[in-house]
Amino acid sequence: MLFSTTRRISVFLFLCFYLCSVKCGADRTTDSLCADGPNVGSQPNKQYGATERSMHKFDFFSPDDGNTEPRPLILFLHPGAFITGDKGNYFMQIAATDFARCGFATATLNYRLMTDITRNDFSLDNILRWVTPVRSQIYDAIRDVRTAIRYFKANAETYQIDPNRIYLFGYSAGAIIALNIAFLNDGDSSSFFPRMVVAGENGCLDCLPFNGERPGSTLDASVAGVVAINGALFDLSGASDADVARTPVLFIYSDNDNVIPLIEGMPFEQLLNEEDITVKLPYIAFELGITEKRNAAEFERTTINGLSLSLVIPKWLPILASERVIPNVVGSEGILEKLNGNYKHKLKLKGGHNFMTDPQSGKLNRNYAKLFSAAKKFLQPIERRSEAGRNRRQRH
Length: 396
Prior knowledge:
- By secondary structure, this protein is α/β, with parallel strands linked by helices.
- It has 14 helices and 13 strands.
- Helix 3 crosses helix 4 (133-154).
- The longest helix has 30 residues, at 366-395.
């Protein structure tokens, strides 16, 4: 009897310890990443574009460690289906801070969205964007991020960064931008994007001036690497093994993505087949990484860039997902098949489109720690090659 009672107590204590470790471990996930790193300083609401627009701002983070050497820079690109979201996205802010603790300089960027079309601007360039809002605004978002890259290269000394060690870290819409920057150039940009827009006012990819740009600037928007989380491409004609040899890409994606198809298909097709999409809006907002929790109250109270999600998503989501407006996309596994079935820089995790956040608590889960670890591992050899190149140049 005594043995039986002791055994029951042991089993009970083991279960308590296990359940606590699982729950508490999930809660502590973000605190344990580079936990012994330095404090992180921030510079919010800096301007990278030449015009004073909220969509051309960024928040900058750097470790307070006394290091005077140039740092690598990671630019974080938020999710939001190109209709909403901003640099204050909870996931991007946490990731930017965690990587800064690990010694990187980081920045979360704003970029133009479909909801940023200026309705009282009757220039030809803006009218074209009314007619083709999805393709036009995605093209503008790509140009915005390329402008930010050029801005940081021009101001490398100010931000204590190495202009040859700039990385992109995108999630969902942000990953689509990052992949397009890795694979797209002016020569093939019109394969998906409207020819009228590409040829319009300042239509080339790097014609948008950055803050403080001087005439005759020849800076390009090349980056040292890309981390793409649940991203996609619209056209694989320009993607090749040579692209990933020049710009290494880490593909991180979920096994049950209900927003971006794994191989190829229409975004949101599964969600928009519902008869009444309004009941799905809190779920969609959470899956897109816009809200921290998956419930109606969180959805109703969330306002981004002065616009309520309850007004933005029902209006713009059907436009975004319309087959008349946007063709099928090629998801992570489709891109990997085109590149090389054995492409090593990839991580597949269990979950939906937003696989790193607990829908009830809003806390980042264990998938975030796996994602973070994979991204660090991916960046390390690139950083080692960069350091070796710097040492060779110094010796000569």
